[in-house]
Please model this.
Amino acid sequence: MQRPVIHIIGAGLSGLSAAVALSQSPFDIVVHEASRQAGGRCRSYFDESMGMTIDNGNHLLLSGNKSTLAYVDAIGARHELRGPKRCEIAFADMASGERWTLRPNEGRLPWWLLVESRRVPRTRAADYLSVARLLRGPGQARVGDVMECSGPLYERLWGPFFLAALNTDPRGASAALAAAILRETLARGGRACHPLVAANGLSRAFVDPALKLLRRGGAQVRFERRLRALSFAEDRVAALEFEHDSIALGGQDMMVLATPAHIAATLVPGLSAPQTFNAILNAHFNIAPPANTPPILGVVNAKVQWLFAYPDHLSVTVSDANSLMETPREQLAADLWREVAGLTGLSDDLPSWRIIKERRATFAASPEEDARRPVRETKWPNLLLAGDYVQTGLPATIEGAVRSGQAAARSAMEWFGAV
Ligand SMILES: Cc1cc2nc3c(=O)[nH]c(=O)nc-3n(C[C@H](O)[C@H](O)[C@H](O)COP(=O)(O)OP(=O)(O)OC[C@H]3O[C@@H](n4cnc5c(N)ncnc54)[C@H](O)[C@@H]3O)c2cc1C
Model:
């Protein structure tokens, strides 16, 4: 008897995590990826002008990202993630020149708030209580409706923290999504907030080992396979229409559509999905960081928001960067380097650089866009959705993408009666 086939459309982290979760199942797995490379918005590539492999954008994980760590463990890549053994995040204020390191204690009881040297300078322990209001905010509220969005604590901690996690100005962002991040990280204590980065690039941590595992298990991963349309018959998807061929789905076959929201919306009739997206800008500089540069530095009162130090290059992230998308790359590189030179003590001479503008980096994390997110089941039982835009309770993050892929895999198994 032929084994049922699960077709996964898209080899970003949602598609890969669905495929990995299904790799031990009694089904044939076929992943179809439109581009020549897997990883989607989380990938590395060799950059000719830099002469090195770089990431499309710096990605920060926290040790509380449980689903992602389970995925990384499943593909045998935990050693690729590096970071301090405790929650320690260095910050610099470009305006005042102040430097500090945020150091929450490991356990849930937040005694670190009582220790001045562990807190943000010029804040009092009582100031931190304001964030608790987020956890009780009504469903459609914005962060700005429920908590104070000004003053030293907001400017030096909550603003940068939520901006990085939501890729949206926190004041107008969904309080529910901000609260979800808080619940899974800081509210669980420093233990859930150890920062982690892919030391040798995103593909080595999240993508290449997954492809290897899938191929070893007999799954097929096909590149340059762009799904153009779906054919529907009564209550099911009947065929996948690619550029040069089509695949009929048998009665037992199924598909997981793991494309970004704007592509899924063109393929699935009547799909409700986020429609507004925010950009992220990354600037990579081909210069080794000075020895004392922290691996991750949060920066306030500057264009640079986060500075990542890799062994052979420095890299800047600017979130919610829609307003910078039309600025010429040369100007962005020069402006950002001036700040990086000031922060690191390096010379003002601009090293070779690469600016990467990801225009649709994530959906805007507003209450309106959050409300548009679909659930993973569709009215066609053999069509499941995965992706960071599907309802996961989290903003568009690696953790959300991986969780959606793993959940789609579970639903597929249930559909087959395999669990
Ligand atoms: C610059 C940047 C920085 C980020 N920083 C962080 C961070 O620090 N921490 C964090 O947690 N998250 C971060 N994110 C978000 C994170 O990268 C995404 O949430 C996650 O990678 C999304 O995965 P996905 O599988 O849902 O979608 P995608 O990665 O977009 O994958 C979808 C895949 O589908 C393919 N595809 C599209 N159309 C078709 C088609 N018709 N047929 C076949 N295949 C198709 C695409 O080529 C792609 O490979 C960042 C994102 C960006 C862009």
In short: Residues 398-415 form the longest helix (18 residues). The radius of gyration is 22 Å.
